């Protein structure tokens, strides 16, 4: 198994063009474009490179990427970045295997997500994420 297949991969950007393969149901964006007239690349407001540098979980690699692969993941990520105005994250999660049990993967994902939240809480990002996030309030009586 190659290193990337055993790593958590944090994607920084989504691409608008270059989709050549249909998904399992046969969907393929017309002309290979996610959203015609939109920017070629959209970036997450979370600095994934900074998150990767700060995350350390023994036995799990966390890798920074700028190419989610022009398939379902990248398509969905681009749409999320577009509609969320940069307030989105894509984490590629590796399959479980003998060297990466669920307990270790879960712990690593918890650390990654906590670091992402720390990044979002920084003053330079806070206003952007507060403006574009959905607040969930508990129902009365709960």
Automatic annotation (TrEMBL):
Organism listed in the record: Gorilla gorilla gorilla (Western lowland gorilla)
A GO molecular-function descriptor: cysteine-type peptidase activity
GO terms, biological process: proteolysis
Organism classification: Eukaryota, Metazoa, Chordata, Craniata, Vertebrata
Keyword Protease: yes
Protein name in UniProt: Pyroglutamyl-peptidase I like
The family this protein is said to belong to: Belongs to the peptidase C15 family.
Keywords: Hydrolase, Protease, Thiol protease
Keyword Protease set for record: yes
């Amino acid at each position: 198994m190659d290193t990337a297949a055993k790593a958590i991969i944090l994607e920084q950007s989504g691409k608008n063009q270059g989709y050549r393969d249909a998904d399992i149901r046969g969907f393929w964006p017309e002309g290979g474009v996610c959203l015609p007239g939109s920017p070629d690349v959209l970036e997450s407001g979370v600095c994934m490179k900074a998150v990767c540098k700060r995350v350390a979980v023994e036995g799990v690699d966390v890798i920074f990427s700028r190419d989610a692969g022009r398939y379902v993941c990248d398509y969905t990520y681009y749409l999320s970045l577009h509609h969320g105005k940069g307030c989105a994250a894509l984490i590629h999660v590796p399959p479980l295997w003998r060297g990466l049990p669920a307990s270790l993967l879960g712990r690593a994902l918890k650390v990654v997500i906590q670091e992402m939240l720390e990044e979002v809480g920084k003053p330079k990002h806070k206003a952007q994420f507060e403006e574009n996030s959905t607040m969930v309030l508990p129902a009365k009586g709960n």
